[in-house]
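ok trying this again, last paste got cut off
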Amino acid sequence: MPNKKRASRTWNPLTQSEAFSNDFTNILTERRANMEDKQFICDMLLNALRATDSYRDVVGITYVKSKHSDESHVVIHFISGTRIICTTMDSGFAMIKDIINHIGG
């Protein structure tokens, strides 16, 4: 009988781990690309508010996201002071509604 060589399959756990890591990184990158730019939404809302007679005193709107948790806040800067609004778990549209409700819209 002739001696046939078997095709050897080697399983390398490091290669499997790297493949999983690359897939996970791609998923996170795609998820971040699909997220709303909430600071941009705040900037656009600032322009809309400043165009009205009622909110000409709004100086800035800053979106603040915690690095350690899912908490987020919006800081509205008026000429006369600031107001902080909790926007944790808000979508972009819900954040706009929260801002308008809290500043008296």
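PB: full thing came through this time. The radius of gyration is 25 Å.
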